[in-house]
Amino acid sequence: MRFKERMARTASHSSARGHAAPRLGGVGVAGAVRRLSRAIGVVLPVSLLLLTGAGTAPLAGCGGPRYPSCDKDEQCNTDGHKGVCVEHLCTECRDDRACSVGQTCTNGACADIPDYCDEKHACPEGSTCGDDNRCKKVPKVIAECDDNRACPGGAHCENDHCVTPPAGGPGCTSFPAVHFDYDSRDLPPDARSVLQRLAGCVTTGSLKGAKVLLTGHCDPRGEYEFNMVLGAERAENVKTLLGSLGVSESKMTTSSRGKLDAVGTDEGSWAQDRRVDIEIR
To answer: Is the overall model pTM greater than 0.85, yes or no?
Structure first.
């Protein structure tokens, strides 16, 4: 009997007995050959199955993988689902572009960025939003002296600290404040000469070994928290330059008063508010 006739007769007998047709998919080529061979009683060559399209992919379910499995993005956006296909799995995002502002794509899901802030995402009380869109804690101001607590000896209260005039030699008795442009923490060009003189006094001059307190200030415009951070950044930038000039970091301390001491009412007087005071202690 010819091969085709035998296959047809076997399939007809199987149907008449109520048996389902053999399933070839999902078991691999070799498995498919063995199953079909047993069903019809003939050893079939693998090449025959390859020519008829049988392989490792299931014949049933020709519509592709089921959610959340996928081969392309379109398969992740059916039946009310939304997402993208990443490594054959539907996920919420592939990168940050799929996430909302203030979120980042982590392990295929959009998650809130810790401490993120902007105009719509406010920082908690006691913090302010930095240039990197992250909330930063506002440094606390601890007053060493005030109207009710006088400084001992010949010291006077300045910026809530007791300040004793330096007993330095020529050129080491007075150091004017470093002033800044509006909303800027960058050192102006004319600040270097003052800081070079200061560095010489505390490293090799008559104030050798003295400690330096740098206090940042701002004009009255802007939020309290923002100005506290801005004042601290101004003081830190002065400290950085002094460090590059040889002053030991252990000899320098920074502080911020923000706009607490601001008295200006116009641009000329606001310029005096934007400064870093230099105190020898």
So the answer is: no
